[in-house]
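Good morning N.,

You mentioned wanting to compare the apo and holo forms, so I went ahead and generated the holo version with pyridoxal-5'-phosphate. This is what I fed in:
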Amino acid sequence: MAKDRMCGINTVLIHGGIDGDKRTGAVNVPIYQTSTYKQLHLGETTGYEYSRTGNPTREALEKLIAQLENGKYGLAFASGMAAIAAAFTLFSTGDKILISRNVYGGTFRILDKIFSHFGIKYEIIDTGNITDIETNITENVNVKAILIETPTNPLMEVTDIAAVTKIAKKHNVLTIVDNTFMSPYLQRPLTLGADIVLHSATKYLGGHSDLIAGIIVVNDEELAQKFYFIQNSTGGILSPNDSFLLIRGIKTLGVRIERHQENAGKLAKWLQTQDWVTKVYYPGLPDHPGYKTQLEQADGAGGMLSFEIKEGYNYEAFLDNLKIITLAESLGGVESLICQPSSMTHAAIPPEIRKHIGITDRLLRLSVGIENYDDLAADIEQAAKKAGA
Ligand SMILES: *Cc1c(COP(=O)(O)O)cnc(C)c1O
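and this is what came out, ligand included:
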């Protein structure tokens, strides 16, 4: 029953993939903490040979996440970056990858500093501008893939996934969507025509800031075979223990996201009324340029927002005086985290590019947690007072 995606997503979150342990009746898939498996006879195995190649706990997670993303094949990696690196190894010298202009800093860095050694090129474009994408793809036969994040990090720009995949398909270009910010609870890019979905499962999927993990989900069998080969050959697999933790985190994804989103929506509206805030970036605000597309392609606006502090307010004092909200990188955990993208998450992006796209030092990104809303708003209010000009 639970394997049927006709079930509601909250049911799939809890019973999807491999539900429990057949042998003992344990309601949770055990942690198969083993590197190798006994072979029954020469050339006869249980289906498992070596845990880099396959492990039952990891497999349970991989089946679960595939189902959640409306995909056929899931693969779990040791980090989001390991998953992204695996995706880029699909390409060869001379190939070009188009990326969103405020893509995750690490995604930019791995293309700029590592895959460039292998002759794989990239170009930063405004994926919010469909005409730009079409021009880029049509004018350059070497473009083999387009990687988008929507909403983007940290400026929350929205890209129309279906519009991008339509153009990409026409030109035989793969669409890769980093779905970390939305999670499959809110947005399922494969259904909108994407070829590859990536996750830093460290964020909302794990949800408790206690593990690092990455995910790839695809529908196409040939692509899946390539990824199994890459995963087994390059070895950046997720451990059995972290696979277990991630399955556990995923069970509560729905209730967590609902609460993250409720808090974020209220905070975004409230921040807009504050005179020390010059701009609020949240795709759930009706005056956000991506509002309509966001609500068409996703089931909500999520729990991430950014805001810019007015000149004259001391942003360092603001950050120092927060008591509940923690200054830290990362996002998607139950606790509220705040960061300054220019010096933290996006430090790998050269200053001139940062400035060009609007990531100033006064821009702060907030991963809104599931604490009581009133406590979060009060925390921000008292810190802003102390940082006042
Ligand atoms: C964190 C993050 C990554 C990198 O994932 P890790 O698990 O830290 O390796 C990639 N993309 C996005 C959007 C992220 O937020």
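The domain at 254-387 is CATH 3.90.1150.10 (Aspartate Aminotransferase, domain 1).

Happy to go through it together on a call whenever suits you.

Best,
F.
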